[in-house]
Sequence to fold (554 residues):
Amino acid sequence: MTFAHRLEGFGDLPALVEASGRRMSYAELASRCDALGARLGPDRSVVAVSATNTIEAVSCYLATLRAGHVALLIDEGLGPQDFELLRERYRLGWHFRPDGAQNYELSQLTSRTRESVHPDLAVLLSTSGSTGSPKLVRLTLANVDSNAASIADYLQLGPGERPVSSLPFSYSYGLSVLNSHLRTGGCLLLTREPVTGRAFWDFFRAQQATSFAGVPFLYSILRRLRFERMDLPSLRYMTQAGGRLDPDNVRFFAKACQERSCRFFVMYGQTEATARISYLPPQLAHGNSGSIGLAIPGGRLSVVDDRGVEVTSPRVAGELVYHGPNVMLGYAESFEDLQLGDVQRGTLRTGDLGYFDEQGLFYVTGRLKRFIKLFGNRVSLDEVEGQLRRAGHECAVTGRDGLLVVATEQADEPAIGAFIAERFRFHHSAVRVARVSVIPKSPGGKPLYAELLRECGVEDAGAEPGQADDSRAV
Amino acid sequence: MEGNSEKLYQTFAAALGVDRSLVTDDLQYNKIAQWDSIAHMSLVAQLETAFDIMLETEDIIDMSSVKKAKEILEKYDVRF
Fold:
């Protein structure tokens, strides 16, 4: 029995409130889910749910879990071609999506397939919401439920909490906010308004929101909005994840929160671990800005050197390895992969480099994998490069967190810029397209991305993905 | 002043990453996909630079259309 199956236990407590004024209690939500779930029939299939921050979308997601089907959460911005790719590749059975008015409609995409997916599979999330990469993370109900329980434990959640939806729930961080509060009887305040608009804050105040969750970009917006002066008496706690918040901002928010008796949690995680891996206890934030804190309850974080041996001394760098009940079954890149069981066995090599200090607090210093974070979204550099190449642009793609860099030898910079704006919708301030005389390459013909980054005049070598040394003292 | 209107439209076009011809007084934040919170903060920064002003919180969150932006900038003594 997971949180999704225990909704009725909270009875008449409010579960979901929309900015439209629509609301639903836990008891109503449970019966709504069962009505929706019955329409999916007895044969287990993959159900795509367009994840808007609405009562309908949340109900469709929970209905899918309660009925024992597999929910694939779809980002609102995913284009029709990308959806089509997912539909074919994973033989999607059903699609819950907005009907253009207030409600959701259910359409059947394929009738029963002979092969069934693995019995433990329950949730599929995209590894990268914005580039439309069809690679998915396979999660079980136990993954989702245990991570929600750990989060509820360290955040000390209970029925009085009223988090406002500042993230989409197709994104693992947004989903973890939803799951952890539904598990503890909280009331989710659902809005699709951006935090930069008055409607969001009017809703926040009218509904007495107690918390919100944000990626680093949200915190830079809050800082610009002069968070320290905003009148938000109902606010009890705030969480930050989805990339590194710079130490200056950590100290600023730790202090500003302390002054208004609000707890501020810096956290770290990956979709591969359902969402959360570690958190920094609020009282430690100001003095340890830059740290990702301690493993979540029920999990274990360690550092492994380049020979695969666990590091036992503080301040020795290696790869961060996480062990816990929230580690995914594995990835999926085809329908056949959905039939696979647990290939991770509870252990996740994060691909992030880091160390722990004398207090046992962990730090991230770099990244082994070729991806960057743009406004909280993970962007695979190889995926972007591959798509540009397929569109006929011979280029190399590199970057650092907050900046995507495309180098080309031809005079096709405007076309590349237009392709990126159209295809990925990254804001142009986060993209630099540079013409270089020659893209530096290794003898084997692989682009030398670190060198290229320097050539394009981009500093901050420490955050370069895929280039850091494996084992050096820090 | 004609010059300030054009400067405003140009700033919107640059911040939202859209063609100048799309920017009219009627343009609203929820009517085009490009005007999201990322573009909005870029717009705020660029308006502050272009008109040499410092916008208050209330003005930032109220700036929901080009027309509204003009009204807000007038409070900072920018004339259109």
The interface with chain A takes residues 17, 29, 33-34, 36-42, 44, 57, 60-62, 64 of chain B (CB under 8 Å).
